[in-house]
Design goal:
The chain is of the alpha+beta class and 173 residues long. The chain has 2 domains: 65 residues; 85 residues, SH3 type barrels (Roll). The chain contains 3 helices and 6 strands. The protein has a 4-stranded antiparallel β-sheet, with no helix packed on it. A two-stranded antiparallel sheet has the order 2-3. It starts with a helix and ends in a 5-residue tail after the last strand.
Length: 173
């Protein structure tokens, strides 16, 4: 063997001994800490249980008081202050699908009882209007204690131009 190989081998042995010493020292220190803490239980039980109670109180305080400023705010669609005679467009605010349609009905409040399980309800003319269709607001209806919950609109473009129907006011943007 060369001198370099011997030096490397001696260096590796020295490193392994250092690691073993460090591990032994750490485990002895941890064992000593635990044994001294447990001996405190027998020699001074009030202090032992006081330390445990203090740590528990600190943990509870940290869990209940931390992180309140980082809570995300939840916001829904913005409700515009609509005006009679103004032009707007229809937008399905509760749908992520850009091809979703806006449901128009003949009387305000009929949307709440809406069920399109029948084929005639899904394929009826001028009941499902594409998003982005321009409309004019004609009047409003209150519902459930909320003013201007429904808007009567006149369709200004497309196959249903000139038809009047009711839509949820939030879907008129």
């Amino acid at each position: 063997m060369s001198n370099e190989e011997n030096a490397k081998q001696d260096e590796n042995i020295q490193q392994e001994e250092n690691v073993k010493q460090t591990v032994d020292t750490a485990s002895n220190a941890g064992g000593n800490l635990v044994s001294s803490f447990l001996s405190l239980r027998e020699s001074n039980p009030k202090m032992f249980f006081g330390v445990i109670g203090g740590v528990a109180v600190l943990l509870i305080l940290m869990m209940t008081m931390g992180g309140e400023s980082s809570k995300p705010t939840i916001s829904g669609p913005a409700i515009k202050d609509l005006a009679v005679g103004q032009r707007y467009v229809l937008k399905a605010v509760n749908a992520y699908d850009p091809s979703a349609t806006v449901r128009l009905v003949s009387t305000p409040g009929a949307i709440a009882a809406y069920d399109d399980t029948e084929e005639a309800d899904r394929s009826g003319t001028c009941q499902h209007i594409p998003q982005g269709t321009p409309v004019s607001v004609l009047e409003f209806a209150d519902a459930y204690g909320k003013p201007k919950a429904y808007a009567k609109v006149r369709i200004e473009d497309g196959d249903c131009k000139g038809n009047e129907a009711w839509a949820l006011a939030i879907e008129v943007q």
